[in-house]
Write a structure and sequence with these properties.
Layout lengths: L1 E8 L3 H12 L5 E9 L7 H4 L12 H8 L4 E5 L9 H5 L4 E4 L5 E2 L12 E3 H9 L15 E5 L3 H11 L12 H8 L5 E5 L11 H6 L6 E4 L2 H13 L5 H15 L7 E6 L2 E7 L6 E10 L2 E12 L2 E4 L3 E2 L8 E2 L2 E2 L5 E2 L4 E3 L2 H4 L7 H16 L22 H15 L12 H9 L1
Parallel strand pairs: 1-2, 1-4, 2-3, 4-19, 6-14, 7-8, 7-14, 8-10, 9-10
Antiparallel strand pairs: 5-15, 11-12, 12-13, 16-17, 18-19
Helix pairs in contact: 1-3, 1-12, 9-10, 13-14
Bound molecules: flavin-adenine dinucleotide (FAD).
The site of flavin-adenine dinucleotide (FAD) has 35 residues, from helix 1, strand 2, helix 6 and helix 11.
Length: 436
């Protein structure tokens, strides 16, 4: 019987699914001790800090994570940043394998003039602000104007647009942070545009998200019916329409045909619109879009432009991984081959490995594949070691019982006000909740 020690870095879906895959792979020949390191005092990664507050069902996957954490071979080391509080070499030399599940948290830049004007920000700032990431709680989001533009054609762009366009009373019973909820209640934004560079048929929104749009109670959603039928014609002309594209096009048709209620709040999709410049004196005043067309299946610039006057621009065009000392990144992800970091005992799973694609469940199959490789690489187990010597002196670790206290305190604060939880957003308060 061989006993291996595995370090997992990052307590998001990839981290927990990796732990689960290791637990499931134990047999009469091998067992694992699993230590999970997380830089924040809170767990569950983007399930807590990404998934939109008005989609609470999706967050119930956290129950699976807590079941994994309750297993006797699992230990949690929260409030520990690898590459800062502990060096990666200290893990690779002591553990049989280290699995980097550190995600992808930095918003990709548009690379256009005016992008840094006040009023222009990334979904990678806006989303953690309303979801209670302690590093983003102090952000000042100005919703005093009437019009916002969200740039991007994926589910993150959709989340940002929906959060801005729905009536904030719909957010009252959710776990949207108190500071964001107050800002949304004071918001003057009534019109939200979502702009995608390519055609309707190319958008990365998924069908369930699109099908939810006509159900919005206080917001009308617009898409040009002609753009939808043109996209359908182009897709059909290119051959058999792929299943997910057909399903999306049908959802778009339903959105276009859905009767509008004359709400003062609306969302409007603009396709074939490439942002060229964000203009304004001291802050965002308009976005200039180039108009694209599709020619022989390719997106081509027509040379024509149009402008949308607005006070807020949110870019949601993808993420790249934040650098970690001692780990080699390439093109925004950890350089890897099918999850192996060649020449090391480091592996990677999730968004750090693949980039920002796939739903939560995608990380489960990813974890299972990488754990199979990891197991096939295992040799003689290393000597067992005392992890306590790696923790900097006086550093507060959020272990599983401390995290359970934070989790319970937030849920208890939510109960009397009819919310799943009231999120604590300050580092100091989170750490002190972990002590009580
Ligand atoms: C805005 C948004 C909304 C989404 N909505 C949905 C949805 O509705 N449904 C769905 O299925 N999927 C959704 N997703 C996708 C889903 O969240 C991802 O597939 C999933 O979270 C990726 O998991 P991960 O573990 O790779 O990364 P993450 O969830 O980002 O977890 C990474 C963890 O690593 C930690 N970490 C980073 N660096 C270090 C370090 N140096 N040391 C220690 N810890 C570190 C981070 O703090 C974080 O907790 C959404 C994503 C976003 C961005």
């Amino acid at each position: 019987m061989a006993h291996y020690s595995i370090a997992i870095v990052g307590a998001g879906p990839a981290g927990y699914f990796t732990a689960q895959a290791l637990q499931n792979a134990q047999n009469e020949d091998r067992t694992f001790s699993i230590d999970l390191f997380e830089r924040l005092p809170t767990m569950w990664g983007l399930v807590r800090l990404g998934v939109a507050p008005d989609h609470p069902k999706i967050k119930t996957v956290a129950k699976v994570f807590e079941k994994v954490a309750a297993e006797p071979n699992f230990r949690l080391f929260g409030n520990i940043e690898i590459g800062k509080d502990i060096d990666i070499e200290d893990l690779t030399s002591r553990y049989d394998a280290v699995v980097m599940c550190t995600g992808s948290a930095i918003g990709r830049k548009l690379g256009i003039p005016g992008e840094d004007l006040p009023g222009s920000l990334s979904a990678a700032e806006f989303v953690p602000w309303y979801n209670g990431h302690p590093d983003f709680a102090a952000l000042n989001i100005d919703l005093s104007g009437t019009t916002a533009v969200v740039i991007g054609a994926g589910n993150v762009a959709m989340d940002c647009a929906r959060m801005l366009a729905i009536n904030p009373i719909e957010l009252d019973p959710t776990d949207t942070t108190d500071h964001a909820l107050a800002t949304f209640h004071g918001s003057n934004i009534r019109k939200v545009y979502i702009a995608g560079r390519r055609g309707v048929e190319h958008a990365a929104f998924t069908a369930p998200e699109l099908r939810d749009l006509p159900k919005l109670e206080h917001t009308d959603v617009y898409i040009d019916a002609d753009q939808v039928s043109e996209a359908h014609a182009r897709a059909a002309a290119a051959g058999e329409i792929e299943k997910h594209v057909a399903s999306n096009l049908e959802a778009w048709r339903l959105i276009a045909e859905h009767p509008k209620s004359g709400h003062e709040r609306s969302m409007e999709f603009r396709f074939l619109s490439a942002p060229k410049e964000i203009k304004g004196n001291d802050k965002v005043e308009e976005v200039i879009f180039g108009i694209n067309k599709i020619e022989n299946g390719k997106v081509v610039d027509t040379g024509e432009t149009y402008s949308i006057p607005c006070s807020l621009v949110i870019s949601a065009i993808g993420y790249q991984a934040a650098p970690i000392n001692g780990v080699y990144f390439h093109n925004g992800i950890i350089e890897n081959e099918a999850g192996r970091v060649l020449g090391t005992n480091i592996y990677t799973v999730g968004w750090a490995k693949r980039g920002p694609s796939g739903v939560i469940g995608t990380n489960k199959s990813d974890a299972s594949d990488v754990v199979d490789l990891l197991i096939s690489d295992l040799k003689e187990p290393k000597e067992t070691m005392d992890i306590a010597m790696l923790i900097p002196a006086g550093h507060q670790v959020i272990d599983q019982s401390a995290w359970a206290k934070i989790n319970a305190a937030e849920a208890a604060a939510g109960e009397p006000v009819g919310k799943p939880r009231v999120k604590e957003v300050s580092w100091a308060k989170l750490l002190s909740l972990g002590l009580n």
